[in-house]
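Blinded run. Sample ID left blank on purpose so nobody reads anything into the name before looking at the predicted structure. Input follows.
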Amino acid sequence: MNRIHFYFFVIICVSSCINTNNNLFEELSSFHTGIDFRNDLSYDENFNIFNYRNYYNGGGVGLGDINNDGLIDIFFNSNLEENRLYLNKGNFKFEDITEIAGVAGTKSWSTGVSLADINADGFLDIYVSNSGDIKGDNKQNELFINNGDLTFTEMASDYGLDDTGYSTHAAFFDYDRDGDLDCYLLNNSYKGGFRITNVGSNQRPIRDSVGGDKLFRNDDGFFKDVSEEAGIYGSVIGFGLGVTVGDVDNDGWMDIYVSNDFFERDYLYINNQDGTYTEQLEDQIKSISAASMGADMADINNDGYAEIFVTDMLPEPDERIKTVTTFDNWDRHQYIKSSGYWNQFTRNTLQLNNGDDTFSEIGRLTGVQATDWSWGALMFDFQNDGNKDIFVANGIYQDLTDQDFLQYVTQEEVIREIASPGSVNYKKLIDLIPSVPVPNYAFLNNGDLNFENQTKFLGLYKPSFSNGSAYGDLDNDGDYDLVVNNVNMKAFIYKNNTDKFYPENKYLKIKLRGKDQNLDAIGSKVFAYSGNNLYTLEQMPIRGFQSTVDNNLIIGVGNNEVLDSVLVKWYDGSISKIQNINSSQTVMIDINESEKPKSKSTLKSKSYFKESTNELISYMHRENEYVDFDKDRLLFHMSSSEGSCICTGDLNNDRNEDIYIGGSSGYPGEIFLYYKGRYIKKTVDILNLDKDSEDTDCLIFDANGDGNNDLYVASGGNEFSVYSPELRDRLYFNDKLKFTKSRQILPAGNFSSSSVVIKNDFDSDGDYDLFVGSRLVPQKYGIPASSYILRNEGDGNFINISDSIAPGLKELGMVTDAKWVDYDRDNDYDLVIVGHWMPVTIFKNDNNIFKKTIQKNLLNSNGWWNTINVSDLNNDGFDDLIVGNQGKNSRFRASTDKPLRMYVNDFDENGSIEQVIFQYNGDSAYTMSLRHDLVMQMPSLKKRYLKYNSYKNQTANDIFSTEKLNSSQLNLIFDLETSILINKSGIFNKTSIPVDAQFSSVHSIYTDDINQDGYLDIILGGNLHSVKPEVGRYDANFGQVYISKNGVHFSKIRNVESGIRFIGQVRDIVGLKVNNIDELIVLNNNDSLQSFSFIR
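Blinded prediction complete.
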């Protein structure tokens, strides 16, 4: 019997040793590693989440070789208990040496850990950030100096680093390039309240005497606070949770990104190379996270420039969105911005570095914007394929954002039960808070800005409450393993099995050897080249959330056996270069073998454009302040701010093009006449009389055949009722610059919201006829509107003949743009129309009868189309289409199988319509409206959804009756991509365009042969800011130039190469020739007009 037990024991042991893991990351047990660390958090009446807001922020992870044996050791922060240090014994076996090393810490609450050789003796030291002692003074930061014998001596005060703020993390780097490591200390505000109304505005420059971020300069081993003179903010509103250091502008000097929680915006400090910084976030970044937490900086698209990834709290699953999420409304968002806190939105943000001191926020495009309550952010190459992936550690042990909890505890009877005069039953209150572990997130980078959530596949899906995390090569096999610190559960130790699952992927492990007081070469950059591939890493191990990663650099190079070269740009400006390096090895590169770089050429590469703004014309468009959401509470985009317009034509018969620019409601349109190389404003009184109309499009042409060009201005917007005369289109007859308005009620004898007017003599009678498209039925968004063809009687009198020659225009839809084009080359002009919730629609001209046709390839082309351009891109004689859409950098998703749906009906039968949008999240479509928004709009639903939990995963059929849904106007969207449609003998086929075209909504398109190779190139302009904060504005397009390759393929060039940088919401781009120079005139909504000169 004993022998049977013995065999059984052996079988169990052998089985447990066999690796049955089928994931890239294999979680190792504490039995195997010897690491049983837990960051356990209990609470009492005096110390808990309600009197210390960062109670569940968790602790960091520090990775580094503390004894120089070639193995990476692990340090864990514990908030309430002792910090732990584990010595790596090899083969993922670790020994707890905390007591021997003397690094447990004596302070009340530890947060972050920074490993750096601060005294440059060749051994890593440990700097621990402390916080949490809300009543006493037991939170000085600790500096454990490595004695070189596995023991440490605490010497923070000797170095001037025993700061007493609510410290989160510290970054050590050489900011002034004097050869030693300085320190940026991230502190969280002492201030308990975190509402803007508690502090007001203009607080950022006022330094907090007891807290605030600090920059310490290393002066011969003592760290001196130089924050104020260096330009570093340190106010009471600085709720810093992440500090990320790197060279964002590739000038060789270290810049700083600080992510702030609560209402304070983040900071981007650009190094001035003179010991000071300039904070430039608002100049370079247009949208940021609202509750910024962890962050990281790395080159995700292998162009040599570092991107910035910042985490927030937006969940992905519908049940989490509907139960724990709330968003600022429009008014509060505007108040936040006007108070100086910038454009903040609840989501992760991924800032794509454009290489010209601007960033495009593409988190929604890449799908990394929603990872729940997120802390650690790390960008590194999981499987050595050459692309940096993204890991996010998330979870909150007790979720104060649970809406049912908040609704419950704010009831008067509950308040009376929990709180009595002078006391609060914290235990009872805290026990009510839900505690739901959630999985971490891992996104694989497939290249071309395509990220895919592969958390389950990678083996990182275990639900947890994770915070600090760090990567390092713990077993020296050439890939990065992963360590995660958790609240109230054991830490995760993940072994990376790249060598098993991706043996074809090679790597190059680089150890950098610095000199003097920076022996680990902090701040250096490595560039590896293989063919057309570039791989970049920066030596800055202190990163992520409260953590430090391995300071050995591993560059994944895919299947490349040999690298052409490796270039090191050292922290002091010198360079090293080695060539023809075999992959899958470790190389040591020493700064002492570097050389000073050759002087840079002052010659700049040729650009295609030069900005000429204000040289030709000075104009500022101003948008009126109407808020669509006050009436249409369930919509996400404003329709009233989609204008304005610009058109050109000779108004004074001097053979020069003049300009009309439309105004928003309350601001008249303006005429500018050409005069001696500039455009001068011409005062026209009649335009001022019509200033209450919203100009949406315009056209200069000779309407009445008198030889003078007249002016047609389309009136639209969503702020007027169907009875408002402000919606009347205006035709101004021109008699030598004396304008009179046509008495007709255009376009069709009734008031409608027009969006586009285009001319064409379709009946060949010698005068111009018109198509006028309708954007919407006034104040009934979603109901299809009728558009019109107007026949010119020859004297400027227009007759609506739509019913007889184009009956399909009746209730066609929500038209945004249209073009006359002979798409089938049958010698007559057809009509192509696009709009919102509409397919690309063709009205084929058959003997002046226009028949609505939707080609098979365009059958499911319903989109949020904004504009259309007609150009023969491939020189085959057939006109192709470029169509501007919403783009894919948004919360909205649509496909043929999973369309976006909008039901329009008077659901609560109160006499006004509602628009309810449903979007797929997984395999079912749920309403995008939060419970409180839907209930506010339809109070009758409140009884059905008393709790937020009952509202999760509700489909259209769950919320509304079948009868209501069947009687609703149903609008669909299948396609959100800005697209090129190549015309193949009258049949349109969608072709590819670089992913950059999907960065933002596109509202204007211009084509020209920019590089003069015989093929038309493309310029895209767009952006839309007037949207609800919960979806976030669209602002990632700075003017995109695409160069044609034989009229088939297009490649985007950087703005620094093109010479174009659009500043805002582009609504129109027109070309003019001025003084024999081709000019681009760019109309920005609610901003300055821009102009650019072609450099031919």
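Unblinding after everyone has recorded impressions. Residues 1-19 have pLDDT under 50 and may be disordered.
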